[in-house]
Amino acid sequence: MLRTVKHMEDYVISATDGNIGHVKDVYFDDETWCVRYLVVDTGTWLSSRKVLISPISIGQANWADKQLPVSITKEQVENSPDINTQTPVSRQQEIRLLKYYGYPYYWGGYGMWGDSVYPNLMLTGYVDLVSRPNDEDPQAVKAVKAEQHQDAIHICVVVRR
User: Fold this and answer.
1) Cβ pair 143, 91 in contact under 8 A
2) pLDDT at 48
């Protein structure tokens, strides 16, 4: 069954160790119309901080109880990079966020989720690996170079099938 963004508002995001908060909005790719992040209001446990949760981490939804389980912890969310949810997310901010969670870049392949059809399949066999972005995206290349410059050591692993 198809769901609307409005329908998903206020769904509970359940981490592996407790609830993170509620869905307040959705960020989508303006070219592919693919959902890239859920904007989650953390409520009182993080002073209503809003965080971005990638669909990469979402498990099987519990539609009856309006819950979305995620494969991250509350501590990971608490220590995640700050992102201003009132402005568009830059490629550099995305790189920082995806790197923090250990997720591969979704723009590294030819599908909506890199070389995967679905976001959660991106992690299959890619433990702690991050693929490099598509060289054809100059904004992504520039952001990666800036990120590499900030890190003393940066490992880029190209995963191609």
Assistant:
1) yes
2) 83
Supply the mean pLDDT for the chain: 76
> Tokens 């220590």 map to which residue?
79
Order across the sheet with 12-15: list the strands: 50-53, 35-41, 18-28, 12-15, 67-69
92 Cα distance to chain centroid: 13
Q: Give, as one character, the DSSP assignment of residue 103.
A: P
Asked if residue 141 has pLDDT above 50, the reply is: yes
Burial of 36 (0-12, 13-18, 19+ CB in 10 A): buried
- Greater confidence, 2 or 126? 2
Q: Which residues make Cβ contacts (< 8 Å) with residue 66, sequence separation at least 6? A: 10, 11, 12
Q: Which residues contact 9 (CB under 8 A, 6 or more apart)?
A: 22, 23, 24, 25
Q: Which amino acid is at 53?
A: I
In the chain, the largest separation of any two C-alpha atoms, in whole Å, equals 47
Question: What are the CA-CA distances from residue 142 to residues 21, 37, 90, 130, 147 (Å)?
Answer: 33, 22, 11, 17, 9
Q: Give the pLDDT of residue 106.
A: 79
